[in-house]
Amino acid sequence: MKSVPLLINDSDLQAYVDCRLNDEQRVEFERLMIEHPEVAERVAAYSEQREALRVALQDKFNEPIPAHLRVDHIASGLSANRRNRGPVFATAAAWLLVGVIGGSAGTTMVARTSAPTAAYETRMAARPMADALAAHRVYVADVKHPIEVGADERAHLQTWLSKRVGRELTAPDLSVSGYKLLGGRLLAASSGPAALFMYENPKGVRMTVYVRSSADKDSAPVKLIDDRGLPAAYWYDGGYGFAVAAEDNRETVFQAAQAAQRQLTI
Amino acid sequence: MAALIEPHIPALRRFAWSLLRDGQGADDLVQDCLERAVGRWQTRRADGDVRAWLFAILNNCFLSDRRRDKRRGPHLPLEDIVVEPSVEAQQDAGLHYMDVARAFEQLPEEQRSVILLIGIEDMPYAEAAMVLGVPIGTVMSRLSRGRERLRQLVAGEASVPQPTLRSVQ
Question: To pair with A252 at 20 to 30 A between CA atoms, which of A33, A210, B29, B107?
Answer without folding.
Answer: B29
